[in-house]
Amino acid sequence: MHIPDGYLDAWVLALFLVLTVIMLVLTFRKANKIVEDKHIPLFAVLTAAVFAAQMINWPVGPGGTTAHLVGGALIAIFLGSYGGLIAMAVILLIQAFLFGDGGITALGANIWNMGVVDCFVGYYLYKIISKALGDTPRGKVIGAFFGGWIGITLAAFFCGLEIGISTIFPYDIAVSVPVMTIYHCLLGTIEGLITAFVVGYTLKVRPDLLELPKIDPP
Amino acid sequence: MSILVKYIKSRWVLLSIVVMIIIVLISPLFGYAYEPMDYVVEQFNAVEKQIYEAPMPDYIIPALGETAISGILAGIVGLFVTLFVCLALGYVLRARRAKEPS
User: Fold this and answer.
1) Cβ separation of B90 and A39 shorter than 8 Å?
2) CA A58, CA B49: separation in Å to the nearest integer?
3) Could you give the CA distance from residue A101 to residue A96 in angstroms, rounded to a whole number?
4) Is A212 helix (H, G, I), strand (E, B) or coil?
5) Where are the domains of chain B?
6) Alpha-carbon span A152 to A182, nearest angstrom
7) Which 3 state secondary structure label does DSSP give A67?
8) Average pLDDT by stretches of 10, chain A with 218 residues
9) How many whole angstroms separate alpha carbon A160 and alpha carbon A166?
10) Is A71 exposed, middle or buried (0-12, 13-18, 19+ CB in 10 A)?
11) Total Cβ atoms within 10 A of residue A58
12) What is the C-alpha separation between A73 and A150, in angstroms, rounded?
């Protein structure tokens, strides 16, 4: 889902860069007030784990397509939506500058899709579903599944929207949005299952890791 | 540096790092990638305009060529860079919180 350089029009790049910078400013303002010692190892381990997991591609999609974990919802469930956004921004910056994975000019759009959309949708869906199911471990696992699944699907929707409205592509959003969204809706079930598994396993062995103060909007 | 070491001393953190290294070690087995984005790009005949040459393009160390060991070493470098950046960033955020008036 990493958009390289050259796929998006200048105004699309600028729009999503501005939106992402606004979100990051709000995020760091809040993080300055919340981050404490116990957040730091969890933040580092989750971010590095998602970086490593993104190197594994699973060939399960139609036409031999592959997918990898995006992980924004997973990190956000542990650290809050803003916490997930910081982690995804770190991953995407390292991937772009060290490995050329994702364009430098497209960083705003990529952080918006995989950071803002995936983390916020995934985290709030997890919260709503787990609360509706009585905040039980089962409810949290189900919430994590839907958070991971719908988070990546909506991130792909935005990705399709950005490339569809850019003039470099001869087709429009009527093609790019359905292709990106439908494919990721199918592949995203794996993301949902992995998110649910990690949350379920953590609830069994270290439930305290899910109870840290969340880095979230007020 | 010692303050950063403090954060990774606990057993679960060290165990997680071992698991992450194992994931990177097996990653060449799952290296083939043809994502929905590639499918869309193929349909539209779009061409990437590269404006920046990354030091380890496509998770490969150029001096070692496109080999499994090159991919593994690049992944391990990325893994530890990510860990270090996050520990440092977390430390800075925590230090700023401590300075905030209560």
Assistant:
1) yes
2) 27
3) 5
4) coil
5) 16-99
6) 11
7) strand
8) 90 97 95 90 95 85 76 97 97 97 95 97 97 95 98 95 84 82 89 96 94 90
9) 10
10) buried
11) 15
12) 9
Q: From the CA of B84, how many Å to the nearest CA of chain A?
A: 8
Q: Are the Cβ atoms of A87 and B12 closer than 8 angstroms?
A: no
For A64, other C-beta atoms within 10 Å of its C-beta total: 10
Residue pLDDT tens, chain B, 102 long: 566 677 777 888 899 999 999 999 998 887 777 777 777 777 777 777 888 899 999 899 999 998 999 999 999 999 999 999 999 999 999 887 777 665
Which residue in the set B27, B51, B57 is minimally distant from A56, CB to CB? B27
- pTM for the whole structure: 0.93
Return the number of other C-beta atoms located less than 10 Å from residue A201's C-beta.
Answer: 11
DSSP letters spanning B47-92: --------SSGGG--GGG-S-HHHHHHHHHHHHHHHHHHHHHHHHH
The nearest alpha carbon in chain B to A215 belongs to B93
A89 neighbors A47 (Cβ within 8 angstroms): no
Please, where are the H alpha helices in chain A?
10-34, 39-53, 72-79, 81-99, 107-111, 118-132, 137-164, 173-205
